[in-house]
Amino acid sequence: MTIFRAARPRVLLTAVAAGTLLLTSACNDSATTAQDKASGTAAPSAGPTASPAATPKPKGEADPALKPFYGQQITWADCPADPRAERAKIDISGMQCGRLHVPLDYANPASDAIDLALIRYPATAKDQRIGSLMVNPGGPGASGVEMVKYGAKDFDGTLHTRFDVIGFDPRGTGDSSPVVCYDDEQLDAVNQTDTPDDPAERKAAHVKQSTDHAAACQAKSGKLLPFVGTRNTARDLDVLRAAVGDRKLNYLGISYGTYLGALYAEEFPQNTGRLILDGAVDPAQDTMDHGVDQQIGFEKSFQRFADDCVDNHAAECPLGTDRTKAARKAADFLDGLHDHPLTAKDGRKLGRDMAWTGVISLLYGDEKTSWKYLRNSLGWAMMRDKGDYLMAAADDYDGRDGNGHYSPMDEANGAISCADAARPAPTREHAQQAVDRLLAEAPLLSKGVTVDDYLEPGCAYWPFKTQEKPHTIRAEGAAPILVVGTTGDPATPYASAEKLAKGFARATLLTRVGEGHGAFGKGSACIDLAMAAYLTDGTMPAEGTRCG
Questions:
Q1: What's the CA gap between 79 and 152, in Å, rounded?
Q2: Do both 316 and 213 map to the same domain?
Q3: CA-based diameter of the chain, in Å?
Q4: 343 CB contacts (<8 Å, ≥6 apart)?
Q5: In Å, how far are 109, 189, 279, 489, 530 from 515, measured between CA atoms?
Q6: How far is it, in rounded angstroms, from Cα 333 to Cα 395?
């Protein structure tokens, strides 16, 4: 997700038009948690520099200039007190925190360096310990430290028994030299502003917001921006592997974390151990096409939610009794907030775009978790004119905590996405095909979309140009990889998992049949057992395995 808006709803169409990935963490349930990460800035630079992707591929441990980084010893200590964990009654006393020193620019490792935030959840059975399990929750921009700290229960059992579970904040995120562009008040203003309905006004607003956003990020984080791409994070991951003493990398990546894992396997195939890529991104897909698929995925999920509301929860469903009209009724209400926003208890306005953001946020969950919260949130808004619950869900997605402070996840997302792939301007024919698909298959979420919303190249106003391009990742020479896909996943549609697995030289696809984004931590014993068996002894599930 990026700051500017190209069309509605913001949370989806902005990413499509900008050519960026729109993913999020699969480990946190939007119905019950909120992002609350540390912020900071990086020193500005004088102007644009070459993309690090254009530099020669580093040699890793064989590069003498990188030996000080690969040979470092991490100092682990008790994690500092965390009021949020205390409020949630999460015991972090057994966890340890540390820092990893990495080059800012791997082509010039002696020029500058940054520190990455780490957390370790030590294995409980020292005599059975296999090594470390590195994890990434997605985003791009989500915090791996928070994934372990607040999602520790998801690792309880075999994984925590046999592995030190290690989370890290990737460069440009969390507490690892985060990308910063705006202050909290500016972000509040941006998030409360609806996209204009008129196409010409929308275009003008998009250009202004995009240029302002690029200038703000350049002013506060300019030195960092050329080096936050995922390929550099994959290189950081290899340094971390060596620093904790592991010969091979064992890794669990969710959502965008699958792209990080895939790039690692491409960069360091000889160092891959057991990699699980869950909620997969197809690295070969054009980012606009990915956004269109994602938009359609959320529309389908929204329709299934509405059907379930009418069919199975009639007494508490605010969408009426006619399943053929239920989704449209909700969409019409949400769209109407553009002209008639609701006022929250804190005085902020819940307009159309923020309300849709809250709905999309809750569709990352499934019928067992966040769909109930979505029913209640829509009910309070539609029946009582109270938008606080939808606003809370939008705040969670945008990284805003209860004190009005934003995490750097949102700003990191745009910066990392533009460093990973700046989509070229599509032909008018390609843009028209995208719009035709959206209007036919996602009419509720794509209302008012035009071809002009998609003709501009992605990241057109970003100050740094990357040479990274979408491509199939084969990872020749890597160990077998386990790819996991969920059939009803709206954020990373199941077809992406199929394509990612097929692209690898050696991979197996494991399928979860169900709703929501990602399979890890979703309560499927079949999935959990398959993941644990692969990570602990290398046993792959049988080809074609499907879990409920």
A1: 14
A2: no
A3: 69
A4: 349, 350, 387
A5: 44, 33, 12, 6, 19
A6: 20
Tokens standing for residue 396: 């969670």
pLDDT, tens digit (0-9, with 9 covering 90-100), for 215-265: 999 999 999 999 999 999 999 999 999 999 999 999 999 999 999 999 999
In angstroms, the CA 49 to CA 393 distance is: 38
Do 129 and 244 share a domain, yes or no? yes
- Consecutive H or E run containing 360: helix 352-362
Mean pLDDT of 143-147: 97
Indicate if the pLDDT at residue 42 is higher than 60: no
Q: Domain check: are 208 and 252 in the same one?
A: yes
- Gap between the Cα atoms of 356 and 444, Å rounded: 11
Conformational region of residue 131, where left means phi above 0, alpha means psi within -120 to 50, and beta covers everything else: left
Q: What per-residue confidence (pLDDT) applies to 28?
A: 44
pLDDT at 422: 86
Whether 153 and 232 share a structural domain: yes
Do 274 and 186 fall within a single domain?
yes
Residue 107 lies in a domain: no
- DSSP E strands, 94-194: 96-103, 113-121, 131-136, 163-168
Provide the domain limits for residue 345: 300-398
Domain count, the chain: 2
CATH number of the domain encompassing residue 198: 3.40.50.1820
Catalytic positions, written as ranges: 255, 489, 517
Kindly state the tokens that stand for 407: 């995490």
> CA 317, 323, 523, 27 torsion: positive or negative?
negative
Alpha-carbon distance 282 to 290, whole Å?
8
In the chain, the amino acid numbered 82 is D
Q: What is the pTM of this model?
A: 0.91
